[in-house]
Design a protein that fits this description.
With 260 residues, this protein is of the alpha+beta class. The chain has one domain: Glutaredoxin. Helices cover 55% and strands 9% of the residues. The chain has a five-stranded mixed β-sheet with strand order 1-3-2-4-5. A hairpin with a 2-residue loop joins strand 4 and strand 5. Helix 1 crosses helix 2. About 12% of the residues have low confidence.
Length: 260
């Protein structure tokens, strides 16, 4: 083989090796991005939990008026909204506040995985809506958004509206979800949701007392903050050094389903 041919082959081999190293670096980077996002969720949740423990403001948790649960609510005292199929072997319990930045981080990173598992019939989720940020920061956006989400559940549009609310979450210090007009505007992004019935439900605060009762249950549970996420009774983020990533969540749910 000529020196020229040998040099070309060596160059190709070096190029191939460099491409392989780049692929490995990209894979590590993607893993670190997901892990960092998870840690960010945990860090923010811890901050929220500390604030909750020390908050002295009126959080509006005392019930006023009749407790009207949204259609199809499940669990103890019908305080959860379920998505996914009843027959799913795994259950994800989520305590969330629509004003909570850590909750948005969780949703951004885990939403697609949760939906995929739900759509396959492997996972059902139970959402408990709370008003933690209203109590800490003042305002009523947590309550009003949660009531609107419950109204969306009445219309069979909870999952889609839930996602829209988190995707368009305002800064924590801006109580934009206190505005009925804002909540109705976002409802327009969910096909079939913006009806007269939905608008009346939102304006009347039909499920406000139900939301407040849900927050009472959250406080009674002594959770560390929002989001609190449990898969089959186990806290997803209990081990902060080794949190359950979206991929690990998928593997755990699929393993549970494979048990038959």
């Amino acid at each position: 083989m000529s020196e020229n041919s040998e040099a070309k082959r060596s160059a190709r081999e070096r190029l191939a090796q460099e491409r392989e190293r780049q692929r490995a670096r990209d894979k590590r980077r993607r893993t670190l991005i997901v892990a960092s996002a998870v840690v960010g969720v945990l860090g923010l949740a811890a901050v929220v939990g500390i604030i909750a423990a020390n908050a002295g403001k009126d959080d509006g948790s005392s019930s006023a008026g009749p407790v009207v649960a949204p259609s199809g609510a499940v669990g103890k005292d019908a305080l959860a909204i379920q998505t996914g199929k009843d027959g799913a072997r795994s259950t994800l319990v989520v305590w969330e506040d629509f004003r909570c930045p850590a909750c948005k981080s969780f949703e951004t990173n885990y939403r697609d995985t949760i939906h995929q598992l739900e759509d396959k019939g492997l996972l059902k989720a139970e959402y408990h809506l709370v008003t933690l940020i209203d109590g800490n920061m003042g305002g009523s956006g947590s309550l009003n958004a949660a009531n609107a989400a419950a109204c969306a559940q009445d219309a069979g549009k909870y999952r889609a509206y839930h996602d829209v609310l988190f995707q368009n979450q305002p800064p924590e210090t801006q109580d934009a979800y206190a505005s009925t007009a804002k909540l109705l505007e976002l409802a327009g992004r969910v096909p079939g949701l913006d009806t007269d019935e939905f608008r009346q439900c939102v304006k009347d605060g039909e499920h406000n007392s139900w939301v407040k009762k849900s927050y009472d249950a959250f406080r009674a549970g002594n959770f560390r903050g929002t989001p609190t996420v449990q898969l089959n009774g186990k806290d997803l983020f209990a081990d902060q050094a080794n949190p359950v990533t979206p991929q690990k969540l998928k593997e755990l749910v699929e393993a549970k389903a494979a048990q038959g």
